[in-house]
Structures
1.
Amino acid sequence: MHSQSSEKASPIQTAESFDVVTLGETMLRFTPPSRNRLEQADHLQVHIGGSESNTAVGLARLGLKTTWLSRLPSTALGRMVSGELARYGVDVSHVVWTDNARLGLYFLEEAGPPRGSQVIYDRSDSAISRMTPDELPRSLFEANKLRLFHTTGITLALSESTRETALLAAKLAKAAGALISFDINYRSKLWSPAAAAQHCQSMLQLADLIFIPDRDIQTLFQLPAVDEPERALETLAGRWPHATWVMTRGRTGSSAIAHGTFYVEGIFASDEVGRLGGGDAFSAGFLARYLESHGDVASSLRWGAATSALKYSIPGDLPLMTRAEVEALVKNNSPSTNISR
């Protein structure tokens, strides 16, 4: 293994400003076609996927200026990731490139009942796990350079240095007057509930917007989110009253609490082609509307629901819907079943 000091890695400094700055890992995803098991597959479909970059793509597709911070290997695989994100409108000019690292991979076995889908990670010691606070592009974290910083609990789980980097980015963004958005996004294959609850504390104290699925509320905080969503959100808001809490509830819809007011939104019907990335699409739709409406939580929930529904109709992890599609779904309250000719 190479030590960090032996690696050639440096961020590119620019003086640009962005609506949203995201930080996290993006991996290559390999999926057997037609719901085959990996051991059956003679070829695999290749996609890219990562929670923060999925959200960044969704925001870019909705018209926001977005950049993604990360650390990639100077290889064909690293270039594939950055090229795909750039293709869909995300700025990647601040990525840290290194000669001595690997790209994280994951494998998805898609399935239906009674066999559940399964994710297999191969991401240990990936390039971003060695990212350090001094590799952050400080020029981004100045007043009037960003409106919102977004990261997730997945990034905090990757390593101590990655956690320190994300926390410093949030502190710098906060000092610059930006909003902080944090998706807890618990992954049981990365860390335990106790470790997640402990190490997310600092980010929860900083965050203005916190996204969490109902299952994670039960797992991390032992609250009855599924049966009593309003009570669970009120309890969380009591612990962290400065933040707006947004709970996704799968096919039940979504809820939020902000300054003592409780909000509820349903779902839009969707033919599920690709479910992975739906939560990231929800956060993209919510954040886009939240920034544009100066904090209208009710309409932001609706945009989140529409964006995630459209994502479910798209293979892969990326929410490649258009703003016009989201606006039409929000307005018409029903999905399109027609062929556009």
2.
Amino acid sequence: MRLTIVTVGSRGDVQPIVALGVGLRDAGHAVRIAAPLPFAGLVTAHGLDFAPLAGDPRALLETEAGRAWLDSGGNGLVFARRFVRLLGGNLEAALADTLAACQGADAVLGAVFAFGAESAAERLGVPYGRLLLQPFDRTRAFPTVGVPRSLGPRHDLATHLVAEQVLWQPVRRPLNRWRRGSLGLPPLPLLGPAMVPPERRPPTLYGFSPLVVPPPPDWGTRVAVTGYWPLGPDPGWTPPPALEAFLAGGAPPVSVGFGSMTARDPAALLRTTLAALRAAGRRGVLLAGWSGLGVGAGDIPADVFLADEIPHGWLFPRCAAVVHHGGAGTTAASLRAGVPTVVVPFFADQPFWGRRVHALGVGPRPIPFRRLDATRLAEAVRSTEDPDLRARATALGARLRAEDGVGRAVAVIERWLGTPSVRPGGEETGGPARGA
């Protein structure tokens, strides 16, 4: 079966989708990943077909409009409105690219910000399913990811309804213009997905572990939580000798990085990080990422190693603890590594993952980025030395690594589509036999 998967966002959003694509390919399916052009190398390095989508997420976040969008993360309505404004003309181009990428597909799968993927599937008359890394389906069990606490089942359900509209309303008009003008489809209703009965909504596949977010009963049978979708390093990647020498030269370090988050003052963030490591008495590996942490800095202490990026699946198990922004992909990597995690959330779903880390007993309370200082960060790093916390992190990591999230996801997709797998060597197996 020919499958097109549409995904956008940072590497943490795209990488798990690539892992799932590899699993589908190995099950005998032809897989095309449609993603922003900077991820072409990531996709093709793992042997998958690539289709470009307009826009460069990193370049957008480094603009003043991008930084303003990140700063508005605490206000959902402003956050969503600025997001669509940030996309600007890229949105129309990305919609056209989405339709082109889906041509010839027998089914289309789309991530949370894959605007247009479901409409493209409708136009082509093929099945559509959602691939999500954060819990977005309505439930009375907990509030939507942007709400910090539960006030009861009715409140929690209401937060999901509001979140649906926060995401839908800013894209409704441009999406409907595209549906009418390019697809020849009728416009979607004012309330969008809220008007679709639950039994007619696309099936949803969640790429996180039920050990981390237990699926609530009211999600029903059209929602599947499979376990994480980890991706190994690019086939051609090898660790730099200097990094290996640093890791071998002392106690396991603390990894600090903020992924796709861009900092307005990277120099100040570096000073805070170095002061915290010094106060906690720990060596460190700093991952510059999109935040620019340490880029252009002067002398870095000998007990700190600076890198642009290092595959998390390789690095994190070699660390004493991990400090990060709480993105879904990075959280998955740190939990699977079995090491304590300190979350410094910026916005969106990141506070949710920080709260889950703390609730699971594998890290301290999250430190909102706006409150980050050297004292708080040093205290959080020191707290990861607690033997009970470390034991819980080790045990959870072992259980997560024992899950076959990709395999279970492939089985669910095959069951949705009624298609058996064909394994290397020609052996045919039914998807439901590997069910989720």
3.
Amino acid sequence: MREMQYSIKDLEKLSSIKAHTIRIWEKRYQIIKPDRTETNIRFYDDEDLKHLLNISVLVQNGIKISHIAKLNSNEIKEKAFFLLQNNNDSDNQIKNLILSMVEINEAKFEKTFSKSILNIGFEKTMIQLIYPFLKQIGIMWQTGSINPAQEHFISGLIRQKLIVSIDGLQTIPQKNSKRFILFLPEGEIHELGLLFYYYLLKSRGHEVLYLGQSTPVNSVEQSCQIWAADYILLFAITSFSGISINKYLQDLSGKFISKKILVAGNQVEEISVTLLSNIQTFGYASEFISFIDSLNQ
């Protein structure tokens, strides 16, 4: 795996420590010693990021930087580890997840994830911990400060947790239950959000037909002919095709004129508010939860 390089702005976004503060700490305490490019621009490596994340945990827990500067890297790491294992603060736990991804450390991920489930349950763990963490991953991906191996590693672990949790739910439909077909459009492969919505639906007694990644529209049509659904739910995370999300949904709406089409994901922000009446969008998981909870009333 190639060694990652981070700018000072990357460190600011990932550690929540201002770039100006990092520079002061470098000069006054030498807590990090960045390398420089041929054009004299600072850059940092994985070890620098991990070291700064550990320092940010100590600072966030009230330890003065002047005291931290007197500790060696192993002492800082040990103190941060202790605080992370004994602190339920979501910011600290997100930092721990980032560390587990950077280090490709499954045990660290398991401890953080399992502890959160014990404290607040699976659903709140996904909303309060995993969703903000995935947002951080998105920032890292956009800035080039995460490589595919790290992203696939952590996404795979989260996917496993979702599938196990879905399988562990009862499959007996409840009173007033509805039928949902779930899919990702062709070219769309990011299924963590769709899997979580699958969990939300199944945990509330609704029936779900999960078609998964990169599903052609004609496959959705064939499924509807065999398995009568009340709703069609899709996630649009990326620009998955050559046409706009609005054009895609207008075409989809015409094919399923008698169905309610539910849309979630990052692309929701691009959807026109004047879209057809059988399209309903969800910007947040909390909105979707309110919607499906209302179906059971």
